[in-house]
Write a structure and sequence with these properties.
It is built from 6 helices and 28 strands. By secondary structure, the chain is of the alpha+beta class. It starts with a helix and ends with a helix. InterPro entries: Cdc20/Fizzy, WD40/YVTN_repeat-like_dom_sf, WD40_CDC20-Fz, WD40_repeat_CS, WD40_repeat_dom_sf, WD40_rpt.
Length: 497
């Protein structure tokens, strides 16, 4: 019996026909109560009550302003008219079109005025996404054509790769009986990839492509020695300056001496070619111009230095000759006009800022009006000159004697060779002269350096009787192919003409 009583209690609890006391009012009850109250309201008719008994067309409380329960709890949704949305869509479609920046700054105010007049608002304000300031430029190597709007976070893909520069030389050659003299120029690399080296009274040729070594010449007297070397632009002839005041001209292909020119009264320590004119600097301080085509080769004399001329370089365009001397002067001479009556020229510039002997001279290949000079032990400064204006652009203290300079065009860098006390090479970024790296290995002062014809390797000769080849400027393969293609195309056009 107790079991049946428990089941009856359960059924009574689960029954749904009992009134629900806490439930919300039913819909029909709400309608009835609203109709009753409206009918009893003074000043209202029955028709009004009937209309209110229907479901309202608008949501109640739509037009009422409601205060949010919390500050900042609702978001702001801007209201824009259809015209602004059309303009914004037009601006987004023009995002990837090229922009003419030549007159953009001058027309910004006028464009704003026209926009206010025609549209009634600034067109810049119609953009859906608007940032203050200009968007950032895409990093180098960025392939997407969309603009970078927000940030420029460097990623492994977009980061510019830096090349690897080996700290060890690519090759080491022996140079026995090398004359350890700061004022001499005993190394030069031809356009045919042949390296000429002067060892005491002999000149050797090393073919960098094949590795062959040839003895070109040797002076008759053991007391005499080679002072300077210089290749012609074509690389088939070599000029040799000697201690017995002569300048010899050699045909390298036939291993034959063409002529020996005498005009100086002291050793010839520097040489430089400009087409058929060979310029030579002597210990007497004089610079002679030789026209190698004629019998009377001595055509002009430059007398701007009071001591030995140890640096001599013609500019790439052949307009100026730069000379450096033991008197701490850097002089720039103009090219002598054809048919000139006077055999002397006046220097265009003569700078005396250096406090030591100036042997290191280098013209910039891609800026023919830029000259770099380096001072000796008492100076140690690299100075960059603008020949057109005559001003010193940059000056840098290297803390070491500078024996030679050369520009490396593959990466637009400047290479300096140093004697006491560093005895190394330094690569500088041009024109900032920020140090890229140092190349150490020589055990004595570096006397001279020269660049290979493809500008990828620099050769140095030092007092430790070694020649070291540093392959530090190899061009990127893609750029190298593009350069070779451009050279071949130009050669084809020249042959057609």
């Amino acid at each position: 019996m107790a079991q049946f009583g428990f089941e009856n209690d359960i059924h009574s609890i689960l029954k749904l026909d009992m009134p629900i006391t806490n439930a919300p009012m039913a819909r029909w009850q709400r309608k009835a109560s609203s109709s009753n109250t409206s009918a009893l309201t003074p000043g209202k008719s029955a028709n009004v009550s009937q209309s209110l008994s229907k479901t309202p067309s608008k949501t109640p409380g739509k037009n009422k302003k409601q205060t949010p329960s919390k500050m900042g709890g609702d978001r702001f949704i801007p209201t824009r008219n259809s015209k602004q949305m059309d303009v914004a869509s037009f601006l987004l479609s023009r995002e990837n079109e090229p922009v003419n920046t030549n007159n953009a700054a001058g027309t910004s105010e006028s464009q704003k005025a026209w926009s206010m007049t025609l549209n009634g608002y600034d067109i810049e304000e119609a953009k859906i996404l608007h940032l203050g300031g200009k968007p950032l430029n895409a990093p180098e190597g960025y392939q997407n054509n969309l603009k970078v709007l927000y940030s420029q976070v460097t990623t492994p893909v977009s980061t510019k790769k830096t090349r690897y520069i080996s700290s060890a030389p690519d090759r080491i050659l022996d140079a026995p009986q090398l004359r350890n003299d700061f004022y001499l120029n005993l190394l030069d690399w031809s356009s045919r990839n042949v390296l000429a080296v002067a060892l005491h009274n002999s000149v050797y040729l090393w073919d960098a492509s094949q590795g062959d070594i040839i003895l070109l010449m040797k002076l008759d007297s053991e007391e005499d020695y080679i002072c300077s070397l210089s290749w012609t632009k074509e690389g088939s002839y070599l000029a040799i300056g000697t201690s017995d005041c002569k300048v010899q001209l050699w045909d390298v292909e036939n291993l034959k001496r063409l002529r020996s020119m005498s005009s100086h009264t002291a050793r010839v320590g520097s040489l430089s070619w400009n087409d058929h004119v060979l310029s030579s600097g002597s210990r007497s301080g004089h610079i002679h111009h030789h026209d190698v085509r004629v019998a009377n080769h001595h055509i002009s004399t430059l007398t701007g230095h009071s001591q030995e001329v140890c640096g001599l370089k013609w500019s790439p365009d052949g307009r100026y000759l730069a000379s450096g001397g033991n008197d701490n002067l850097v002089c720039v001479w103009p090219r002598m006009q054809e048919g000139s009556v006077s055999n002397e020229s006046q220097a265009v510039h003569c700078w005396s800022e250096h406090q030591g002997a100036v042997k290191a001279l280098a013209w910039c290949p891609w800026q023919p009006n830029i000259l770099a000079s380096g001072g000796g032990t008492s100076d140690r400064h690299i100075r960059i000159w603008n020949v057109n204006s005559g001003s010193c652009i940059t000056s840098l203290d290297t803390q070491s004697q500078i024996s030679s300079l050369v520009f490396a065009p593959n990466y637009k860098e400047l290479v300096s060779a140093h004697g006491y006390a560093h005895n190394n090479l330094t690569i500088w970024k041009y024109p900032s002269l920020v140090k890229v790296t140092e190349l150490n290995g020589h055990e004595d002062r570096v006397l001279s350096l020269t660049l290979s014809p493809d500008s990828s390797t620099v050769a140095t000769i030092a007092g430790d009787e070694t020649i070291r080849l540093w392959k530090s400027f190899e061009m990127d393969p893609i750029k190298k192919k593009a350069k070779e293609r451009a050279v071949s195309n130009s050669a084809i056009h020249q042959s057609i003409r």
